[in-house]
Hints:
This is AsmA-like protein. This protein is α+β, with helices and mostly antiparallel strands. Among the domains are: about 10-145 and about 155-220, no CATH class; about 360-555, no CATH class. Helix content is about 30%, strand content about 45%. It contains twelve helices and 23 strands. It has helices at about 10-50, 85-90, 115-120, 155-160, 270, 290-300, 335, 385-390, 440-445, 500-510, 535-550, 555-610, and strands at about 55-60, 60-65, 70-80, 100-110, 120-130, 135-140, 165-180, 190-205, 220-230, 240-250, 255-265, 275-290, 300-315, 345-360, 365-385, 395-405, 410-415, 425-430, 435, 450-465, 470-490, 495, 525-530. The chain has a 23-stranded mixed β-sheet that branches. Helix 4 links the parallel strand 6 (about 135-140) and strand 7 (about 165-180). It starts with 8 loop residues before the first helix and ends with a helix. About 20% of the residues are buried.
Amino acid sequence: MNLNFLKQRWQRITARIFIVIAALILVAGVFINFYFSPILANTVKSTVLKSSDSLYNVNFTKADLHIFQGKIVIFNIDLLPDTSVYNQLKKVNSAPNNLYRLHIKKLVLTHIHPFRLYFKKKLDIGEIILSAPELDLTYQLNHTKDTTEKDKRTLYQRISKTLHSIHVGHIGLNDVQFKYKDYSGNKVAISELKEMNLSATDLLIDSASMTDKNRTLYCTDVTTELNNFSGVTLNGLYRYKMKLLKFSTHTAQLNIDDITLDPVNPKSFFDKSQRDRFSMHIDSVQLNRFDFLTYHKYRKLSGGSLIVSKGRLGVSGNPNAKRKAGDRAITFPNAGIYLLKTDLKIDTVLIKNINVSYTELNRKSEKTGYIYFNNTNGRILNLTTNADALKQNKYCDIALQTLFMNKSAFTVKFRFDMADPSLAYSYKGHLNAVNLQVVNPAAMPLGMVKIKEGTLKSFDFDIQANRYVSHGKVSALYNNLKIIMLKPDTANKKLKRMTIASLFANVFVLKHDNPDKPGDMPRSFYVNARRPIESAFFKTVWKTLLAGIKSCAGFGEKKEKEIKTQMADRAVQKQEHLTKKAERKLKRAERKKEKELKRQKEKEMKERLKDEHPTQ
């Protein structure tokens, strides 16, 4: 190839100059790479060591500085805690609650200004990408609030001798493998996450950013996404899963989509547990003003409002509760919430379009009864277990609107005393008009009564209760009530009609209308019932209301005992009558037999006499 453009002398001189410059730049790049790589390594290691008070060390196998690309690639990074330093901090009550171990296969830092780092001690990075990070987080509750530290300097003050500022435009962590161990409970809780992504925007550590309230972990925003997370509860009874969890520190909003909680084995659940069985599916949960830092440090869950939208909640009463002695007051909401062992403080919970059902198996009838509430909406105020918040307001108020058996509007208000050892609570509500036959799915299996006819005009109640007793007013206004008494037919595994008892109840006992006549004063009943210790919360509530309803209908506890006594007496009388009748029948048979034997003997005697005296 002829280099015609190098024929002129000035062209050859220019070419030599460009070659020399290129060679010098290449040599300088290689030199800078080897020169700055150790500086970078030492800077990173010393910064981590100083900023963590010697608790953490960082190591890596290789660091490449590409000066012309403005890029650094670091391989096989390990961030490890110094256990001896950690144990010393625990002795003086200064150890952090969270301990980290991190391994990164490759770390890429782009748009770096190495000369600014070297000459101005400012680390400025455009983007950091972490490949296949493996993070192990161990949580142990060493203290519940910030402890007094000997070194009160800010993070910037600790690193200021090494760096004047650190700025990163964007940090991305994709496909994070995260393992979490929680030692705060009776058992070690271990969770492993695989489909998790994290990103952070505009990380800045300098003299001004330390007091910037718009930053979290020195970033303007930290976003976490967790996909397809599932697991089993510590007791092994429930399986949970969620499709998506997302949190942004900028909006302080936590969002969860498609949450499901179901028993691992519904058929054997009651054989393994004395508790009621739950199942749940919620389309979306949104927690606003979530205080991430407080939760991260001390596992204190604090938020402004929690919105729960669309889903179902099912509760099944445990039919084996009486098999084991013990008070089931732990099923009360103002007791059960403390089982979470979380310092909880949420100002408002909004419930939107949730379907709720309660089922229970009656061992006497061997049938399952149920009630359900459709399209439940409502609000919960002051949902908290926080000691300071309870000093200001110890009541949790719940207001709900729903459709009873998907037929009639039902409103109810609960108030729970969250600080009372006797678990005081109250509830009052109103149910609109409805055909009383809609309660048969519960009345027949659980109450052994079938509503044949009847129209409820209104149902109102106002109950005050605690773990020991329930008392209050129940009023049910209705017309044309007729019932059928039932008893179990074990041979055919069904409920059988008690004809005489039903007739007796409808004719002599039941009040068919309330009020009895138009213009009369309606009947109300004042409930005063002690709670059996094996009775769970939902069962206690509906048993209390059922006692009031039955009394309004003239079939109260006293009358029920009288009827049972009368029915028992009638049964005894009937048995005595049958016994006497059988005895009379037996005596008649015996007399008849005696007469027959007597006639037979007389006949035999006559025949002998005839044989002995034939001529006569």
